[in-house]
Amino acid sequence: MNLYTPGFFDLQWRFAQRIAALSDARTIDQIVPFTVLPALLDYRTDDPAFLDSVASTNAPAEYLYEIYRQLPKRGRDPTEHRFGCFLYVFPWRSTKKLRLHFANVDPTGHPLARDRAPSRVTELRNLVADVERRQLEVETVRGGSWLYNVEAYRDLFPSVYTDTLTALPAEPAFLSQWGQFVRGDGTVRAVLANSFIEALAGAKTTAECLAAFPLPVLKAECAYTDFKKALT
User: Fold this and answer.
1) Whether residue 2 has pLDDT greater than 70
2) What end-to-end distance do the CA atoms of the chain give, in Å?
3) Whole-structure pTM value
4) C-alpha to C-alpha distance for 189 and 202, rounded to whole angstroms
5) What is the total count of domains within the chain?
């Protein structure tokens, strides 16, 4: 079963389409810098011939989704270590930073419900315990996501971490930006998506298109030793 639905592909295509219209360029050439479609398509977008073939279709968003739907299931990334809804990547970008990620794999489907908070905190503690067990030389913990705008998510972390939250420029090439539109079952949040599309329609520049995202990506980063001490 695929995680994402056609609506998610269509939303990103509309975004690329608007940027293309404002810069007098092909929509297909905008999906690499401005969408997460390259990652979803196993980076086939590196091939100019592939981009040309998509551009020649009558329904490019649907065409791209069909390719995505037929891709084989990906194997596990050996740098990722999962603990319930949380996972970490280390080393991150050839540094001694541990990169936190979150995914809705809670069996209830409501990972940020109040009664699920203890489970999430336990997962974070188990994550730290794994770092200690593996004796990783982690210096800092870093996270970046639209999710930090959600109080129930922020409250899972120690204040020494969330006190560092700062807004980043829009990052449309990363899921940390686009994830705000997707429910746990892969369907698109219609109210949020419609608001986004309406803002795009009035955008006159690429910068205004980037400002149309309802929620910014927030970054948090602190010393690993402080993060660990606050959790244990």
Assistant:
1) no
2) 37
3) 0.91
4) 21
5) 2
SS3 state at 99: strand
Q: Does one domain contain both 89 and 147?
A: yes
The CA distance from 126 to 117, in Å, is 14
The mean-pLDDT minimum among 12-21, 100-109, 172-181, 193-202 falls in 100-109
The Cα 146–Cα 177 span in angstroms is 6
- The DSSP-derived string for 196-224 is HHHHHHT--SHHHHHTT-SS--EEEEEEH
Q: Above 80 in pLDDT, residue 74?
A: no
Dist CA 38 CA 31 (whole Å)? 7
28 with 142, same domain? no
- Is residue 49 in a domain? yes
- Give the domain extent around 112: 80-167+218-231
Instruction: Give the model confidence (pLDDT) of 90-123 as tens digits.
Output: 999 999 999 999 999 898 889 999 999 999 999 9
Query: Are 133 and 227 part of one and the same domain?
Result: yes
Q: What is the rounded CA–CA span in Å between residue 99 and residue 141? A: 6
Q: Are 125 and 147 contained in the same domain? A: yes
Cα–Cα distance for residue pair 57/62, rounded to 1 Å = 9
Question: Are residues 191 and 104 part of one domain?
Answer: no
Domain contains 145: yes
